[in-house]
Amino acid sequence: MRIVVARCQVDYAGRLSAHLPMATRVLMLKSDGSVLVHSDGGSYKPLNWMSPPCSVREGATDEGQIEWIVTSKAPSKGQPDTLRILLEEIHHDSSHDLGIDPGLQKDGVEKHLQELLAEHPGTLADGLTLVRREYPTAIGPVDLMCRDAGGQSVAVEIKRRGEIDGVEQLTRYLELLNRDPLLTTKGGVRGIFAAQEIKPQARVLAEDRGIQCAVVDYNALRGLDDPTDRLF
Amino acid sequence: MRIVVARCQVDYAGRLSAHLPMATRVLMLKSDGSVLVHSDGGSYKPLNWMSPPCSVREGATDEGQIEWIVTSKAPSKGQPDTLRILLEEIHHDSSHDLGIDPGLQKDGVEKHLQELLAEHPGTLADGLTLVRREYPTAIGPVDLMCRDAGGQSVAVEIKRRGEIDGVEQLTRYLELLNRDPLLTTKGGVRGIFAAQEIKPQARVLAEDRGIQCAVVDYNALRGLDDPTDRLF
DNA sequence: ATATACATTTCGTTA
DNA sequence: TAACGAAGTGTATAT
């Protein structure tokens, strides 16, 4: 990893064209060849960058300024991805051997929500019981297949944030499932759209299609499961 | 901007829990308080981070190790976002005054594609003429509303990459538009799905629904518009 | 390799 | 401010 702090100008041409006027920025050159251009603010996203695999060629302009040409080794759709960095004044330049990173361990995303709801289907609707998780269909698995108190089949789609495409997904499942004669005997399959947060447009679309919406309290569910399991 | 290279362990608790075992990494502390933890690889996304606004408190453990506690000042949904960084060995530590960045100038995204197609609708289908851009409907604007040589209305949905959700979106528009008596007089509204690249599954779905697919050559369109406008 | 869905998505624009 | 859609999205997973 090489870290350079320098006054620089950056031009990118590839899937789009972008330009950064001359200013002081931080440049990270990772060992896989990727380059990140960071300013002192914004979020974790660099102002500009080049994704690996790519290569950096150091040259000089006619005026003797240092120029880096970063080219992608995997140009998408024939577009030649190129990042040109013109260095005017270098304030800092250091290299560091970091070794390979052991990587990130995550916990708490959609899969966990699905596990918790599979254990407590009654929190979605009274009397709901689990038939199976990841119920397979031709177009992909339904998150939860359940049965309600009246014996009707219920397909549950789980999202962290419930948006319109989630409703579309569940709609496709329901369309397919309601062609299955094994499931359609007891009044067909109805749907429940479950999420920690459901956007208004998604709710409107869901309810318009007869799909029930359920807002899920992740922390409460986790409390039901194991009240001691916190990181610190 | 402070840059630290150090052997460190990172724990995050907030919307999820995440853990990074002890290893050498690059830590960027931006002047808005945000923190980025980068490894020597991957993409531009850090292994872990804290978005601004947030604050860093430096402390020490019982064993005398340096510890940074980064807390978000805008916790989302009541979740207390916290990042704890335990520093074992510092290889590099420097601070730099970058000033404010003039910012990025972009060109070439979906909006531009829409402008170009609005100027040259004939490239989508022979004899196609523009009625209006951003044609308003109850569920959002249709990218282009056109009329074909036979006088039939044509709704055009434009995407950079044509995927299944774009077809769904256009389908919803067509469903709604075909309820409008003003538009349905001349054989209803048909659809064109235009993109620089159309994924096979999206194409199958579109054609199954009677929606025409059009692959758009952005560079050629831009050439029609202004052949001299290239960056380098 | 391709397709699909998720993301501590982030980043705009608009109502 | 909230919501909605795009992103040079990236990333993991299953096909």
Automatic annotation (TrEMBL), chains A, B:
GO MF, one annotated term: DNA binding
Segments forming domain Endonuclease NucS N-terminal PH-like: 2-102
Enzyme Commission numbers on file: 3.1.-.-
Endonuclease NucS C-terminal domain residues: 109-226
CC annotations in GO: cytoplasm
Keyword terms of this UniProt record: Cytoplasm, DNA-binding, Endonuclease, Hydrolase, Nuclease
InterPro entries, A to Z: Endonuclease_NucS, NucS_C, NucS_N, NucS_N_sf, tRNA_endonuc-like_dom_sf
Top-level taxon: Bacteria
Main location: cytoplasm
Cell location: Cytoplasm
CDD domains linked: NucS-like
Role of this protein: Cleaves both 3' and 5' ssDNA extremities of branched DNA structures.
Family designation: Belongs to the NucS endonuclease family.
Record-given protein name: Endonuclease NucS
Species of the source: Nocardioides jejuensis
Underlying gene: nucS
